[in-house]
Amino acid sequence: MDRGSLLSLGANDLLQRGWAALSVPLRRLLHKPLRVSAELTRRCNLRCLHCAFPCAEDAPDRLSLGQWTGILRSLRRELGPYFLAFGHGESLLEPMLFPLLAEAAALGARTLLVSNGTLIEGDVPERLCAAGLGKLQLSIDGTQARTHDLGRGTPGTHAQALRALDAMRRLPGCPSIGLNAIIAGHNLPELAGLVRWAAAEGLDGVSFQPLMRTGPDWGALWPRDPGAVRSAIGTLLEMKDAGFPIRNSREQLSALEGYFVAPDSWPGGLTCAAGEGLLIRQDGALQFCVQRGPFGDLRREEIGAVLRSDSARLRYREVLECRQTCLLLNCNHRPSLRTIAEGLGRSLRQAK
Fold first, then answer.
1. In this predicted model, what pLDDT tens digit does every residue of 227-255 receive, in sequence order?
2. What is the sign of the dihedral through the CA atoms of 5, 102, 201 and 92?
3. What confidence score (pLDDT) does residue 23 get?
C-alpha cells in the first residue's frame, strides 16, 4: 500500500472513530465501515482448544474467485481505501488467497493475514510477498513449545510457527509481522516473556486476545487463580507504560483482569466496535458481528445498497447497544484515537 493510500485510510479511520462521541442516529448517518474481514474458508488444519469452530466445513455455495474479485472492487468504489483481513479459518488452505491478496493490493487496500504459521513453508513466503501482503499476524501463545502446542492441540506447531517467522523475515521487502496470543491459564507465566522476545526480534508487537468461553474445550485453559491473572496483566500494563510493543490499549488490558475474575460482568466504559467493520462470509452474507444475523447478500446486491438498507441500520443499532463481553476481543474492542494514530505512524514508517 502506498503512502498516499495509507494517509487517506488513516484519516478516514480517525474520522470514523471520532463519530463514536456522537448520538446513535448521527453515527448511523455518518457510518462508513473501513475494516473488512473476508472469510475465504472455515476450515483449519489445527484443532485449538480455545476455538469455537474447531471442525467447521466450507459452505457448499461459497463465492468463486470471480465473485470475490468483484466484491473487492465494489468495496473500493464504495469505501475508498480500506483494511482487508483474511481470517475466520486458516486462509492458506484456500488457493484463492494469493490472487485475492494481489487484487486487494492493486486496489490500494491494506491487507492482513492471520495464520497459525504451520502452512508457511516451501514457496509460500515468496508467494505472500509477491502478492503484496501488508501484514502477517502469527499466532504464538508462549515462549515454550509445550505451552503453545497444548493450546493448539498439536505437537510441533510452535516450531512450525517459528520456522514460518524466520522464512518470512529472510525475504527482502517482506510484510510487517506481529503476533497474536491468547490470555489463558496455561500461558500466564509466559506472557511478559513473549512481549520481551517480540521486542528483541523487532516484530510489530503482540496483540493479546482473552480466552472466550466458547468451543468444546475452553474449560481446560480457563485460569483458576485470580491472583495469577492480576499479576500477569499487571506486568503487561507496566510493560506497556514502559514502551514495550503491546498493541492492546491500556483500557482493554485493565478490563481483561476483571473479565477473568467475573466473566459475566459488563466491563463498564467500553463499547463494541463491531459495527465499524464488515464480515463477508464465504457464501456472500454480510454481517457486522458474528453474533448477529446477516443484513445482506453480496451475490445478489451491491455493497452500497446493502449498507444503506433498513436491515443494515437495524443491525448497526443492535451492535451499538450490545452488552456482551465479547467486545473485549480485539476485533470488537474500540481503540482510542491515540492508538489508531500510533498504528498509522507505524504503517507509514514501514511504507518508506
1. 999 999 999 999 999 999 999 988 889 98
2. positive
3. 47
DSSP assignment of 255-284 equals HHHHHHHSTTS--TT--B-GGGEEEE-TTS
Q: Let me know: does 85 contact 60? Beta carbons within 8 Å.
A: no
Query: Which residue is it, cell 468495496?
Result: 75
Minimal CA–CA distance to 89: which of 79, 97, 78?
Answer: 97
- Is residue 89 left, alpha or beta, with left meaning phi > 0 and alpha meaning psi from -120 to 50? left
Closest CA to 213 of 249, 257, 264: 264
Could you please report the per-residue DSSP string of 36-92? EEE------S---TT-S-TT----TTPPPHHHHHHHHHHHHHHHSS-EEEE-SS-GG
Q: Which residues lie closer than 8 Å to 292 by C-beta, 6 or more apart? A: 315, 318, 319
Q: What is the mean pLDDT of residues 317-329?
A: 75
Contact between 124 and 174 under an 8 Å Cβ cutoff? The reply is: no
Pick one of 3.20.20.70, 3.30.240.20, 3.90.1150.10, 3.40.390.10 as the CATH number of 3-350: 3.20.20.70
pTM above 0.90, yes or no: no
Q: How far apart are CA 325 and CA 128, in angstroms?
A: 35
Residue 18 CB neighbour total at 10 angstroms: 12
DSSP class of 188:
G
Q: Which of 46, 136, 43 is nearest to 95 (CA)?
A: 43
Q: How far apart are alpha carbons 128 and 175 in whole angstroms?
A: 9
